[in-house]
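Reminder: ligand-aware prediction takes two inputs, not one.
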Amino acid sequence: MFRRLINTTAKAFFPARNMSTSPSGPLLKPCKLALIQLKTGSDKSANLTRACEKVALAAKAGADIVVLPECFNSPYGTEHFPKYAEPLPSLEKPTPPDESEAPSYHRLSALSKEHNIHLVAGSIPELEPSTKKLYNTSLIFSPAGTLLGKHRKVHLFDIDIPGKIRFKESEVLTGGSEPTLVDTPFGKFGVGICYDVRFPELAMIAARRGAFAMIYPGAFNMTTGPLHWELLARARAVDNQVWVAMCSPARDLEGTGYVAFGESMVVDPNGLVVKKAGAEEDMVVVDLAPEKVVEVRSGIPVTTQRRFDVYPDVSGVAGSSA
Ligand SMILES: O=C(O)CCC(=O)C(=O)O
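Here is what comes back for the chain with 2-oxoglutaric acid:
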């Protein structure tokens, strides 16, 4: 039953037209990727303005794809999500609500268009007007400012480590129900949000459907950040022989709220950290070379050695080349 559900979801989400991979590999041309490790506060408009300024700098540095962190337009906390949430369009219903209702959407769309970049716009709290449900949502824009993808965080961050950290997103949020794969002229990439990185399936599904990278806006904390942030990024990269990008807010030890870990990073398809930020506001810029995925997969050919006769293929494309 579980297997059937996954396969159905994956097939529904990744239509056949998205299934081919170029003979040259999943990254079709050189790509400059920039992660903005942003300092955020409680003023939504100020957060957006700061994000716009930093994205402009990334574009000036030649970035093709720019990534913002999880919950970059609000403080991170269940008490804040309802107050900051906005209705957002979807691929199925692309007409956006008015600017007064969805200011973040309009500013981010204009931003990607102004700088002619692909923008993985971190995540923001979303209100679904028809159900009144709230989601933690990443919008992905094309250089024309159109919506290319929308990822609703699938795995909600519900943890309790006594004496260290308790967080329960499910008190107010609903989990998304689809993996996300975005098609661009560079090739395809998958998107997950923060806690999603702990679940290898989303990255496996994306990689086996032809992705060259997984991009995770995230906001780990001072307990699980040192434990697992880098380990998980490297694990997803080496499992799938793809690039992995993790983009965090800056660490703010002076505030009174949730303290994000920082250390945004890009990991290569060999699982090596190529570049990593510290705790402060920063920008990580990395050139992704098209030959890297091909080279790593040809040297260690796990992508062709899988045994789907022994275990199921969660991507629903057994026999695929990734
Ligand atoms: O998985 C973790 O340790 C942190 C996850 C998290 O902070 C989040 O999902 O927002």
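The chain is about 25% helix and 25% strand. Residues 70, 157, 194-195, 198, 219-221, 224, 228 surround 2-oxoglutaric acid (CB under 6 Å). We will return to this case in the review session.
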